[in-house]
Amino acid sequence: MANACKCLHFPRIYSTLVAALVALGLASAVYAQIGNAGLTGTVTDASGAVVPNAAITLRSVNQSFTRSTKTGPDGQYVIPTLPPDRYQLTIAARGFMEQKTQAFELSSGQAGSLNISLEVAGQSSEVTIQESAPVLQTTSASLGAVITSKQVNDLPLLGRSFLNAVSLIPGAVPVAPAGSTTNHSPVNQSVMPSIFG
């Protein structure tokens, strides 16, 4: 009889363990995407026609790693899950001159878009773009910013708490603690900023 009780509890423990592992896996997947950036774009020729199968290489300026991909039949490329950093993009396609962009910044949570127009190959085999278009975030309406350690050190923050710097981020709104009936005045209050509105 005692063995029967132990057997009845085993499925309950097993199902609880499986549920905990699934929840942990989902939480880690979401956490891994919060601080990352991404880059998308379209590669075209001078006439505006898309360039399929172009080799795209993204090089991290500070961390010295590269990510490579190719454009699809629609001329588009996607490079997801990038750590915030400065990057340089190199594009190469048969019949076109290789092009390199100037270094550009991708911030935490940014889904940047950078479209490139290739020139037909001639005497020179490489073109370096001196002034590139800014990397725009056109795929998401989310806002984000990076608060550097220099900003935290240089700005007059009350109590030297980095949370006070969050109010400098566009879209950040002070949120009073639950159950509070405050008018959101920043004087003599403990207000937790919300970057989700």
Q: How would you explain this protein's 3D organization?
A:
- The chain has 197 residues and is of the alpha/beta class.
- It has three domains: 1-34; 37-128, Sandwich (Immunoglobulin-like); 149-194, no CATH class.
- The chain has two helices and twelve strands, in the order αββββββββββαββ.
- Strands 2, 3, 5, 6, 7 and 10 form a six-stranded mixed sheet that branches. Strands 1, 4, 8 and 9 form a four-stranded mixed sheet that branches. A two-stranded antiparallel ribbon has the order 11-12.
- The longest helix has 33 residues, at 2-34.
- The model is unreliable at 28-33 and 185-191 (pLDDT under 50).
Write out key terms for the chains shown.
2 helices; 3 domains; four-stranded mixed beta sheet; 20% helix; Immunoglobulin-like; 197 residues; six-stranded mixed beta sheet; 28% strand; alpha/beta; single chain
Task: Give a short summary of the structure.
By secondary structure, the protein is of the alpha/beta class. It has helices at residues 2-34, 149-154; strands at residues 37-45, 55-60, 66-70, 76-82, 85-92, 98-100, 104-106, 111-113, 116-118, 126-128, 173-175, 192-194.
